[in-house]
Protein: Pectate lyase
Organism: Microthlaspi erraticum
Amino acid sequence: MAVAHLNLGSYVFAFVSLSLAVLAPSVQAHIAAFDEYWTQRQTDAMRRTLEAYDPNPLNVTDHFNYHNALAMEETGMGNGTRRDLRQIGSGRKILKRGGRYQSLNAIDKCWRGDKNWAKNRKKLADCVLGFGRKTTGGKAGEFYTVTDASDISLLDPKPGTLRYAVTRDRPLWIIFARSMVIKLQQELIVTHDKTIDGRGANIHITGGAGFTLQFVKNVIIHNIHIKNIGRGFGGMIRDSETHFGLRTKSDGDGINIFGSSNIWIDHVSMTHCSDGMIDAIMGSTAITISNSHFTDHDEVMLFGAKDEDVIDKKMQITVAFNHFGKRLVQRMPRCRYGMIHVVNNDYTHWKMYAIGGNMNPTIISQGNRFIAPPLEDSKQVTKREYAPYTEWKSWNWQSERDYFLNGAYFVNSGRSNAWSSAPKNPIPGQFAIRPQPGTKVRRLTKDAGTLGCKPGKSC
């Protein structure tokens, strides 16, 4: 056992060292001075990427589909396997909630029926599914209430502001005293173990740059609007309680996930960012993007930025229960390397294509609804870039129980289950649950985007 442990440690050290060497020329990511502080954060982040990577991702996709099927069976919307599902559940009696809360998807059903959600906010951290399922955000920390919508000082953030809260070097569950529009002056750099929880208020983030999650772990962003994000001009910006540094011009992403792991983005409404809405790059993994609404944008999501960033082979992302809405063009998402589980999303608009990629990503599309645009050249859901058929025919892009309308079609390649050759399935084989079909997507995504939660009432 000691020898095996030593070999594993040597492998991890070698992989990290090689990855750092490969990434060094391009890893700056708006850090003008890559000092000892950022070097250490980068090294730590690379190790977390390896730790967060699941070598049997089929376990995760099955876990997601099982819980979603269980939630649907409790509402009588399923296919008659309710007794079997309960047999492999926790064994506890499931309490029914009245009204529309019985028809929610598995993530929402976990918390939204509780009229005392405002007193039980941290219950949210128990509800994430998918590759980001271990994300707890600021659950271990205190509540911090944002009372000031200003963003004046970048080096010495004013207590009570969002910038002050996200740069603290301790876990925090961040809430808001009232509805507010926060116009950022520059990118908002978030530290480890944070939940940004906009429930109970109408929170709009706008202005010069968006959220930067760089070499961090364990962040939840929930129930906020992100819109009209511009490019930040950089400058001296605080990135933690104990450190600040010179930043170069930022791209204008709504949320930039860079070398980070265990991230959950849920019930976010996004519109018009200068660059991407959500980018996950440079070894980011263990991410779930759910229940969100996207409109008015060209390049929506980019997972993996450069062909030479081979660390993105460890990237694993779940995209679930989202609505890709009006005036979108492409990249929902666009992937390099990694494994992406795209499940039960509603694609009602695109201009060029919905899902694309290169460098042999694995894309598992399950139970989505795809409504093609009227343009004949844009009916295909998928787009494989910079590779001939002889190369991409072996890429594992699979469609299962998707619902295609207006001539939409998905081009499969590779072979089913090739992404996980010998998984240890946590669900007994006789109860294997298929994904919910795309015909149910309208109900599963009906509340995508921000919610109008009010204390004392079910959300």
